[in-house]
Amino acid sequence: MDIVTGAITQVVKYLVSPFMDHINYLVYYKTNANDLRKQMASLGEQKADVQRSVDAARLRGDVIKVVVESWLSKVNQIEFEETTLHNELEERKGCLQRGCSLRYRVGKDAKRMIDDVNQLLNEGRSFAAVLDPAPLPPGLESMQTLDFHVYDSTKLAMDKIVEALKDEGVRMVGVYGIGGVGKTTLMKEVAKKMKKDGLFDQVVMVTVSQEPVLKKIQGEIGENLGLPLSEESLDVRARRLLERLKKEKRILIVLDDLWKPLNLLEELGIPCESNCKVVLTTRQLHVCRQMETQSNVELKVLSEGDAWAAGDCLAENNDALCEVANQVVRECGGLPLAIVTIGRALRAKDLYVWKDAASQLKKPSSSPPDIEGVHEKVFRSIKLSYDFLESKATKFCFLLCCMFPEDFSISEDDLLPYVVGEGVFGDIDTLIEARDRLHMQMERLKASCLLLDDSERRERCVRMHDVIRDVSIWIASKEGHDFVVKSGRGLTHFLEEDSDKNLRKCKRLSLMQNEITKLPNRLEYCPDQLMTLSLRVNDDLREIPDGFFQGMISLKKLDLVNTNISSIPSSLSCLTDLRVLCISTDYWKDRDHEPFDVSLIGKLKKLEILQVRNVNVTRFSEEIGELTNLKSLDLSRNESMSFAPNILSRLSLLEELNLEESFHEWEIEEEGLKKKEEDDGRILSKKACCCLSEETSLSSLTRLKIKVSNIKCLGSANNIPFRCWENLTHFSIILGNTDWFFTNDDVNVKACATGDRVVDLWSHHP
To answer: Most C-beta atoms within 10 A of its C-beta, which of 96, 358, 618, 623?
Structure first.
């Protein structure tokens, strides 16, 4: 009987179920339509996410997978069908009440589409990006141009530039004028206006400089467009950039500070077409002509009336100063840069200082400096502004800035090693005091307009106006400072003695951001008087000859950041007076990079700052414990590194320790002691590492970045050593196996321990 009943049940089920489906189409047509609308909303959100990723990929030049294109096509089709169904429902509401066939069809179509939408949602989840593409950096239009004022000459030039850019027949515009007349500031304002008025969808402005580095120019344009250029070949990069620029509807590219002609299409990948227009600024009209610009606009100096208006605030409503202030402005020759810099230098000074300044500006120079494109009046005003700086330390900090390449965004962290190496603040013993003093000097130089605030590009950074940098390099090469600055020149070889007459007496040599691949076996000129040497950002330099540092007995600061050297030459031990050593590489590009031996550094007893980042240090050896003068130690991004015991605890003066993405397997105290006993005081076991107590014994620490992956190091009660770290002002401390990628600057100090649980992350930056 049960068998018969079961069979009948199955028969009824197969007969009734399809019938009920059709009944449901008729009865629940409205529910199906509403459910479809909700599902379509979810599908629309997913489509938007996928489309954003697809758009970003297309702009990068990536090829979109066929399955993704097919999915988007299916989504578009079902959106059309759903919209048609919805419109039909709205148009025939009255008919639905009377017509069963229409309700049935709506209910059935809606149910079918719901199934299709669910399938599309599942498919979309398999390839939709988890994250949206990172937003581009703030555009030029969002940056304030605080020093821009519209005078007759600037308005005339601006109107001509705008008119030329609106002309369909003009593809390239040249803007020329002497250094310090305000070309860069003017073009920033024009570019912002073009974007705001909708004449261009994209506006990109890059600095070319006297010795253009093509790869850098391409990279900056690509970065502004969300196009990472990882290729090494200039030709390949140019083709990729060209392909990307052709996809823009209307784009304006401003090439600032051009000194010599470039083939924009072949060398950079910039097409001068109807959708891509170019404005170049230069100090020389002949550069515009060589570039075959269709329209050239001269930015002239200010008229006497405008010049006085520009310097109107100098006298600050002081009638006694008005006359002499007028003389000072007149001697600036209508050049805004000269007016601003001398005005800031004389602000709040008494009448006698103003008179002396006016007198000095009037005196003709017996031997005017030969600085290409810099007017003598601009030179005199900048030089006088420098002379008016109150202290030697402020002046020297200003000169140190010229060692960096043109348009370089200079942070206080970049400058600090140079300041410490040169002993600029002789009366200061701690790094925290040195940082405060350096910050004060930077504020003074910004207030004097000798440095420009660049925090919009990089937080707490400054940069030098190109004309001011030219003058500062001239000053730095004279007056006993003996700088030789060849940064950002595209050099492929180390300087020969006959390449610069100042090399024989050089004390400070900057070869930053070049393409040097080989160094001489030994420096034949000025080795015994060289105090600072920077080879920073020569990423094709992979080897330093063993004898290169011989004779450099006075060297105090050595910068080898981003040089990709694979080992330290034996002659490094000759640098017995070295105070600062900075080394880092891009060894991650070559995963077979040999371990980097740092034992030789232990001979440099006077070191105060040591940075050895991203060089594949595998063992921080005992010799480093001899560096008892060390105040800052940065060993970040040496992922395989281990610490021999009893090294950190000997660095009693250490104020800053950075082990980000580096050593984190701290020993538990008892295990460390046991390993030491097993070694019987002879050769340390390879596995023996230092204990966390060594780090917590450093009472002078103010900056700290560490990870403690084994929280047992904190003791049985998981006690965080607050008292040991109470002097910290900047710190990131990760507890557990959280990656550095997930660090969070907003975690509250008191939230580090909650009951018996220790949180994974403790991070704070005031």
So the answer is: 358
3-state helix, strand, coil in the chain (%, to 5): 45, 15, 40
683, pLDDT greater than 60 = no
Neighbour count for residue 735 (Cβ, 10 Å): 22
Alpha helices in 61-125 (DSSP H): 66-91, 93-98, 100-125
Cα separation, 291 vs 172, in Å, equals: 9
For the stretch 599-624, pLDDT in tens is 899 999 999 999 999 998 888 778 88
The DSSP result for 24-65, as a single string, is: HHHHSHHHHHHHHHHHHHHHHHHHHHHHHHHHHHHHHTPPPP
- Bridge-based pairing state of the strands 656-658 and 632-634: parallel
Whole-number Å distance between alpha carbons of 375 and 336: 12
Query: Residue 390 carries which DSSP code?
Result: S
Residue 501 DSSP class: T
Banded pLDDT at 377 (limits 50, 70, 90): confident
Alpha carbon distance 93, 98 (integer Å): 10
**Residue 736: which pLDDT band, with cuts at 50, 70 and 90?**
confident
CB 662, CB 642: distance < 8 Å: no
The two structure tokens encoding residue 189:
């304002």
The kind and range of the H/E element at 256 are: strand 251-258
- Greatest CA separation found in the chain? 125
For 177: left if phi > 0, alpha if psi spans -120 to 50, otherwise beta; the answer is left
Sheet holding 295-298, edge to edge: 202-209, 251-258, 276-282, 172-176, 295-298
**Hunting for tokens 């069963």 — which residue is that?**
100
| Backbone dihedral angles phi then psi of residue 476, each to the nearest 5 degrees | -65, -25
- Give every strand in the sheet of 557-560, ordered side by side: 483-485, 508-510, 532-534, 557-560, 580-584, 609-613, 632-634, 656-658, 703-708, 730-735, 761-764
Question: Which tens digit of pLDDT belongs to each residue from 650-676?
Answer: 999 999 999 998 888 887 765 544 444
Tell me the whole-structure pTM to 2 decimals: 0.75
Distance CA 57, CA 47 (A): 15
Residue 296 phi, psi dihedral angles, 5° rounding = -120, 135
97 vs 101: CA distance, rounded Å = 11
Radius of gyration in angstroms for the set of CA atoms belonging to the chain, rounded to a whole number = 34
Contacts with 186 (C-beta within 8 Å, 6 or more apart), sequence order: 148, 154, 157, 158, 161, 175, 299
Q: Which of 674, 704, 697 is nearest to 687 (CA)?
A: 674
Q: What is the CB neighbour count within 10 angstroms for residue 676?
A: 16
Residue 196 is inside which H or E element, if any? helix 183-196
Whole-number Å distance between alpha carbons of 285 and 271: 22
Strand-pair partners of 485: 510
Report which of 311, 317, 375, 371 is spatially closest to residue 344, judged by C-alpha positions: 311
CA distances from 628 to 225, 233, 656, 659, 692 (A): 48, 46, 14, 19, 19
Residue 619 and residue 641 in contact, taking contact as beta carbons nearer than 8 Å: yes
